[in-house]
Amino acid sequence: MAYWLFKSEPAKWSWDMQKAKGAEGQEWDGVRNYQARNFMRTMKKGERGFFYHSNDGKEIVGIVEVLNEIHVDSTADNPTWECVDLVAVADLPKPVTLDTVKAEPRLKDMVLATNSRLSVQPVSAEEFRTICAMGGLDEIPA
DNA sequence: GCCAACGTTGGC
DNA sequence: GCCAACGTTGGC
C-alpha cells in the first residue's frame, strides 16, 4: 500500500471543487511531467493520498483515494500523458502547512519539502500517519 | 512580481 | 550525447 501527494493550485482546481465531485471523482488531468506521470502509473485503486494547495494556502487540506488507475489524459493532445482519477475521502480538520512540514523533524525528508517542483509525489506510510495525526485525524477514515 | 530550481528542447 | 537556452512551477 503506497501513499501519495497531489498538488493543485486552488485557483485552478480546489479541494472544495474536488469534494463537490463526490463519489463520481475527478480525472487528475494536466500533468505534463514524466516523473509525476510515472508515479501515477504505479498507483493502485484504493490507494490514498493527500490533496495539497500550492501557491495559495500552501497546505495539505484533505485525503483522496485512487478511484481509477492510469489511463490517457483526456485533456492531452498526446497519449504520452496519462493520469488517474481521484475521489475525495476526508477533510484534514486542521490543514498542515508547508511551514509545519518543514519544521517537523519527522517530515524533513518529505518530497514536498525537498522538491517543491514535483506535482505528484510519493509519501511514506510513516509520513502519511504523522500528517494525519497532525491534521487532527486520529484514525484514517474508511 | 520576482526568481531559484528544475525539466525539456534542440543545436551542434 | 552534451549543454545552453528556454519554459514552468511554486515559494517567497
Short description:
This protein has 142 residues and is of the alpha+beta class. It has 5 helices and 6 strands; from the N terminus they run βαβαβββααβα.
Describe the structure.
Pfam families: EVE (PF01878). InterPro entries: 5hmC_binding (IPR052181), EVE_domain (IPR002740), PUA-like_sf (IPR015947), THYN1-like_EVE (IPR047197). Residues 2-134 form the EVE domain. This is Ubiquinol-cytochrome c reductase. There is one protein chain. The chain has helices at residues 15-20, 34-41, 98-103, 111-114, 125-134; strands at residues 3-8, 26-27, 48-53, 59-72, 82-97, 120-123. The protein is of the alpha+beta class. Strands 2-5-4-3-1-6 form a six-stranded mixed sheet. β3 (48-53) and β4 form a beta hairpin. The two termini are 15 Å apart. The structure holds a DNA duplex (12 and 12 nucleotides).
Keywords:
142 residues, alpha+beta, ph1033 like fold, 5 helices, 24% helix, DNA-binding, 5hmC_binding, Ubiquinol-cytochrome c reductase
Please bin the fraction of helical residues. Answer: 10-25%
| Radius of gyration based on Cα positions | 14 Å
Return the domain count. 1
The CATH topology comes to ph1033 like fold
Task: Please give the order of strands in the largest beta sheet.
Answer: 2-5-4-3-1-6
Strand fraction equals 25-35%
Q: Assign the structural class, choosing from mainly alpha, mainly beta, alpha/beta, alpha+beta, or little secondary structure.
A: alpha+beta
